[in-house]
Design goal:
Distance between the termini of chain B: 41 Å
Radius of gyration of chain A: 13 Å
Number of strands of chain A: 11
Shape of chain B: globular
Strand content of chain A: over 45%
Shape of chain A: globular
Strand content of chain B: over 45%
Low-confidence stretches of chain B: none
Distance between the termini of chain A: 37 Å
Largest interface: A-B, 28 and 25 residues
Mean pLDDT of chain B: 93
Radius of gyration of chain B: 14 Å
Structural class of chain B: mainly beta
Number of helices of chain B: 0
Order of helices and strands of chain B: EEEEEEEEEEE
Oligomer: heterodimer
Helix content of chain B: under 10%
Helix content of chain A: under 10%
Number of helices of chain A: 0
Order of helices and strands of chain A: EEEEEEEEEEE
Low-confidence stretches of chain A: none
Mean pLDDT of chain A: 94
Number of strands of chain B: 11
Chain lengths: 115, 112
């Protein structure tokens, strides 16, 4: 069974640019959630998509957005990049979603560096 | 504001030592507590999901307990091995929220 796949794994952007990250969940999982990790911080919840609908959203500015396709693959987009957006972005998939008691399955992350 | 606290932040032990870490979370509206192990350059992997007060779970040399009334969970590793070196994350799910709140993790280093 293939795991959660995130692309790209590494990328470098400059301030003001935008970036799109992709996450392919485990086959059959309908929920994809996104997290940001910066040095010294725990995983910060960005948003969750379930069956193509945003179900929950964390406390991030509107520059952070996402979507989910009919095959459950999800993308997140960050516009007008700032230096503080440099982080590891993790996605996780699950069958019932983050509000359930099932475990999350994580990808290896996309490491974004903003110069 | 919901905070999940983990202690210690880091821990260095010798191979064969047993160790434990703590995860504290708000006890009101508790729904579930997750533990994940995150090795460097890999993805976090679930260890346990616990929901009931007094719950104890075990996977090999790793076990966890849960006290939902006082809002804490302990993770124990018996006879630590170098391959146990990783960051251990806990995350709490409260009834009023739809997402997990993660602690900052405990980084364990096991010296051979």
């Amino acid at each position: 069974k293939a795991g959660v796949t995130q692309t790209p794994r590494y990328l470098i952007k400059t301030r003001g640019q935008q970036v799109t990250l992709s996450c392919s969940p485990i086959s059959g999982h309908r929920s994809v959630s996104w997290y940001q990790q910066t040095p010294g911080q725990g995983l910060q919840f960005l948003f969750e998509y379930f069956s193509e609908t945003q179900r929950n959203k964390g406390n991030f500015p509107g520059r952070f957005s996402g979507r989910q396709f009919s095959n459950s693959r999800s993308e997140m987009n960050v516009s007008t990049l700032e230096l503080g957006d440099s982080a590891l972005y993790l996605c996780a998939s699950s069958f019932w979603g983050t509000g359930d008691t099932g475990e999350l399955f994580f990808g290896e992350g996309s490491r974004l560096t903003v110069l | 504001i919901l905070n999940v606290e983990q202690s210690p932040q880091s821990l260095h032990v010798q191979e064969g030592d047993s160790t434990n870490f703590t995860c504290s979370f708000p006890s009101s509206n508790f729904y579930a507590l997750h533990w994940y192990r995150w090795e460097t350059a890999k993805s976090p992997e679930a260890l346990f999901v616990m929901t009931l007060n007094g719950d104890e779970k075990k996977k090999g040399r790793i076990s966890a307990t849960l006290n939902t009334k006082e809002g804490y969970s302990y993770l124990y590793i018996k006879g630590s091995q170098p391959e146990d070196s990783a960051t251990y994350l806990c995350a709490s799910l409260g009834g009023s929220q739809g997402n997990l709140i993660f602690g900052k993790g405990t980084k364990l280093s096991v010296k051979p």
